[in-house]
Amino acid sequence: MDFLTLPKRTSGKRTYGLTSIIDLGTPMGELMNNLADYSHLIDLAKIGIGSAYVTPNIKKKIELYKEFGIKPYCGGTLFEKCFYQNKLPEYKGYLHDLGVEWVEISNGTIDIPLRERLHIISHFKEEFKVISEVGSKDSDKIMPVEEWKEEINQLLEAGCEYVITEGRDSGTSGIYEKGGTVKSELIHELLKEIDHNKIIFEAPSPKHQMYFIKEIGPNVNLGNVKLQDVLVLETQRCGLRSETFYMEDLECKLP
Fold it and tell me: Which Pfam families match (predicted)?
């Protein structure tokens, strides 16, 4: 029975308010148990880094996610490895064989010029839903705000469903300082001109997740969420944790 007044959450087949988890080797039995209870809180599942290539029973894992209505995809590092070795046609075949319908195009480890990424996206989007990523995994690499904006806008215009802002699974690069602090000025500048519903902010810890919930609202798209944190995240989104206790009953704080 619902009797509390809580922030309005998107549900069902969400197009925003997404929770994207990172799977870095969750055993099948453990995954089954978690999805049985929490699958309705999860929208996307990234088989993190290049782990899909060496994950036992990867096809069964992909099928399990899809059975629970979750969209699985492989981490961008695997795409970059295939690009580096000139194996993109083979990568397409691999994804089709797995039954994966989403693909991440990134340049977090190697520098792939934007023009070339846009060209790759134009080919992949004919067969897959494309997510792209902006930002480097190198915490020493500084990317100007205008470059962030330009890349995100061009990637969305090229047909990407969403753009991920790099943060790593440690929250120490991309949109974060080395010590894990959010680059808040960068975030504020991005939100001035770009539809936040088309951005997935990598937020690997509850602290990072709370920042974006407070800044944008309960229906912010969040990525690199650990499976064990899914329920805690939903609790935060619903104003049921001390740090978000007084969150307004609005779909989103931004106009």
Answer: ComA
Of 193, 231, 188, nearest to 209 by C-alpha is 231
d(CA 5, CA 34): 27
The first and second tokens of residue 78, run together, are: 């695997």
Fold of the domain spanning 19-244: TIM Barrel (3.20.20)
pLDDT at 251: 47
DSSP SS3 for 243? helix
Angle value at C-alpha 66, between 122 and 123, nearest 5 degrees: 10
- What pLDDT score does 77 carry? 96
Q: Are 41 and 19 in contact (CB under 8 A)?
A: yes
Distance separating alpha carbons of residues 199 and 99, to the nearest angstrom = 25
- Give the CB-side neighbour count of residue 211, counting CA atoms within 13 A: 18
Q: Distance between CA 134 and CA 232 in Å, rounded?
A: 27
Whole-number Cα distances in Å, 241 to 203, 219, 230, 244, 246:
17, 16, 14, 6, 9
* This model's pTM is above 0.85: yes
Cα–Cα distance measured from residue 128 to residue 125, given in angstroms and rounded to the nearest whole number = 5
Q: Please tell me what DSSP assigns to residue 85.
A: T
- 3-state secondary structure (DSSP) of residue 179: coil
Report the chain (255 residues): mean pLDDT per 10 consecutive residues. Answer: 89 97 97 98 97 97 98 97 98 98 95 96 98 89 93 98 91 90 95 96 95 96 97 96 79 47
